Amino acid sequence: MEERLGPLGSSLRKLRNARIAEREGRATDETRKFIEDYEKNVSVHDAASEFIQAGRTSYMFFDGNAAFRWTFVSPSPLYRPGKRTGQYQITIDEVPLKGEPVSENIFDGCLTGISVADLAIAIADEVEAQQYIGKHWTAIGDLSDDTPTAIYLQLDVAKSP
To answer: Which residues face 140 on adjacent strands?
Structure first.
């Protein structure tokens, strides 16, 4: 993540690690302060907002266009490296949520996700089946085993048969 996103990736990794520490009861005052400061800063200026706006603008170009066959996939909110389970669920035109919010923020405690490996399987399945032509969709999967795994294969370490 750091390689591809630079400082944004480093900050996201630090935030993820801080939240894991908090969830596991290992959070320090410094960890909690980092989470609080990060979330406050994001509410003022989200460095990813331009990327999100570009994605939304791209979708608006496709939406309603019948001149060619298209499908538009967006990763679910908790898209991250993780184990491949081979199982996922598809939603069309909505952010998939679960459970009841734990604060006034409707997303707090309700976001769903999918591993990079499982989203890749969902995309490959769509390429073959072409069930969502002209649709905006996302896939969600099981993140109960949130063990970080490598997501990029580097050619210099790939073994030939």
So the answer is: 89
How many angstroms separate the Cα of 85 from the Cα of each of 1, 59, 75, 95, 115?
Answer: 22, 28, 16, 21, 9
Q: What span, in angstroms and rounded, lies between the C-alpha atoms of 136 and 159?
A: 37
Domain ranges of the chain: 1-47, 61-149
Share of residues in the chain with pLDDT > 70 (%): 83
**Token output for 69:** 């066959």
- Of 55, 63, 91, 59, the closest CA to residue 76 belongs to 91
Bridge pairing between strands 136-140 and 89-92: antiparallel
The fold adopted by the segment(s) 61-149 is Rossmann fold (3.40.50)
Q: Which residues contact 134 (CB under 8 A, 6 or more apart)?
A: 66, 69, 70, 71
Chain centroid offset of residue 144 CA: 15
Tens of pLDDT, residues 89-114? 999 988 888 888 777 777 777 788 89
DSSP string, 20-54: HHHHTT---HHHHHHHHHHHHHHHH--TTHHHHHH
